[in-house]
């Protein structure tokens, strides 16, 4: 029996998202989520795609080990258990791989130690990722475990894009540079956009706009990232749901000196109380657009600031690439908020960018063009699939040995 299945795990601080895929045809066999781990009201939602009927369970799940054991039990009920000989590997999303990890990597003790060493630059994510890896290793110590890094796709950036203009000795000592995030999404969408255009990835220049509660842009030349908006952390770049994005660093000193705010208070302000929620009290674009349509001036200003920053990055990455074949919108806002897409390219007709009003309002789960026919630059909506990308990279690494 061939081993063609890959279990994809995305372990957060209090949650585990998972998908089981069969890489013989890239089909999904099961999807699920465990949330509120460590609480009395933990919840597991499991959906076997063979039936499409979800099962939910609520109760205490004390830790990630218990969560993964519960996931294994649910999979076993559908004949998809972790003990199946058809399971080739487990692929883990790991947020930060620094400069060390430029590709998917089979996990061993050395890899674990390096992921742990990177915790200071990803304090919210890497510890949870490590917990998920170690728990999965305990459940299936004989099975290859693969780390797929959010930062890996961006390691092709030239030093001119990756370096900050600060003292190089200080930067090197503390590993201060631009790493970028959402890499699995940017990689998938760039490749899918090329396919949509009927071209090979190496022949296409794409600006990818991953717009969700977290948001990032990337400039992709011939399938390789040459610039991206997030930096040392996911705080840099676009206006996001709760993050400020780009800002004069001296604002921090001002808040410390004049406002008497502590480092932790400023960290919370910029990461959790800024962006759209800081500007208008909402971080859900659907609610913001509803308020805009009702004439809410605060919501309108928040939307305008969001679009202004987005448009600046489109223009900047157009300049970086020199030639742009497509601009691709993806993730929750990018895929579903037609007013955002329309506003982001409005006024950029001289750059060959425009959207067709009718095509832009069509809702679909399929990749599609929303630019007018024969447009000089294609504008596309490309639903992202980070789990498939992780499974694809994992299976490409270990599948030939199973």
Written description of the protein model:
By secondary structure, the chain is α/β, with parallel strands linked by helices. The protein contains 15 helices and 14 strands. It has an 8-stranded mixed sheet with strand order 5-4-3-2-1-6-8-7, sandwiched between helices. A 6-stranded mixed sheet has the order 11-10-9-12-14-13, with helices on both faces. The longest helix is centred in the C-terminal third of the chain and has 25 residues.
List the SSEs and their pairings.
Layout: E1 5-11, E2 15-22, E3 27-35, E4 43-48, E5 55-58, H1 64-77, E6 87-94, E7 105-106, H2 109-117, H3 126-139, E8 145-149, H4 159-162, H5 168-173, H6 183-196, E9 205-211, E10 215-221, E11 224-228, H7 250-257, H8 263-272, H9 275-280, H10 285-293, H11 297-321, E12 326-330, H12 331-336, H13 338-345, H14 357-361, E13 368-369, E14 378-381, H15 386-398
Parallel strand pairs: 1-6, 6-8, 9-12, 12-14
Antiparallel strand pairs: 1-2, 2-3, 3-4, 4-5, 7-8, 9-10, 10-11, 13-14
Helix pairs in contact: 1-3, 10-11, 11-13
